Amino acid sequence: MTDTAAIAQEHWISLPQQGRLYAKTWTPSTAHQAPLVLMHDSLGSVALWRDLPAQLAQATGRQVIAYDRLGFGQSDARSGTLSAQFVGEEAQLYFPVVCQHLGLDRFALLGHSVGGGMGIAIAAGAGQDCTALVTIAAQAFVEDRTRAGIAEARALFQDAAQLERLAKYHGSKARWVVDAWTETWLSPAFSDWNVDAWLPGLQCPLLAIHGELDEYGSTAHPERIARQAGAGGQTEIIAGAHHVPHREMAEQVLGRVQTFLAQAD
């Protein structure tokens, strides 16, 4: 682990006819190996990663990059509903623009929840340009437990106080962010979504981390991801953790990710 704190820098990335994306980088003075790009969850943002990007940069000696997807955090608002193909669209339409702006030729990925699915889609298309992939609490398919957890969350977000807390990170976009999550995942058009088509194309080492008590998906998800990954994969089930193990068991997850990325190099 390096003793030098990473230098943080903000970036604004223009999208053709759709506004701007907000991104932030954390660069240690000893930066080496491929940068690590973080993909946030359905309610997430750069700010909601909290201290994890800086900790990852220091622990791994890599530049760490996080960006707010269009419609989230400090990125510009997004109109309309998400399509049932939004996970693949992030990989095809938006992530390449981020790479071009930041000059990324090779990268490693870490994705939380739906961000893990996006990481799988991105890595499958990137071939050997993606050097490693970590998924945390990623969904591999739409499980009954997933739908039940999201339905419960939808009911909770009818409370104005819950929405106000989310608005601290998404501003006036908070209602759109909630609806983009709940209404997409609970729609009949999304019921047969899965990552199966991408998994065989993975050429990089993979680590699928999952909380034992995840309320949005059983351990069938990491097991399926690791089993079908083209280059094989490892699973790490975090005892006592729910859907955000990198916050609930921060030191354990950070150490596991650090070890995995060092071995992947």
UniProtKB/TrEMBL annotation:
Residue intervals of the AB hydrolase-1 domain: 35-159
GO molecular function, one term: hydrolase activity
Keywords: Hydrolase
Gene3D superfamilies: alpha/beta hydrolase
Classification via Pfam families: Abhydrolase_1 (PF00561)
InterPro entries assigned: AB_hydrolase_1, AB_hydrolase_fold
PANTHER family referenced in this protein's UniProt entry, alphabetically: ALPHA_BETA-HYDROLASES SUPERFAMILY PROTEIN, HYDROLASE
The name this protein goes by in its record: Alpha/beta hydrolase
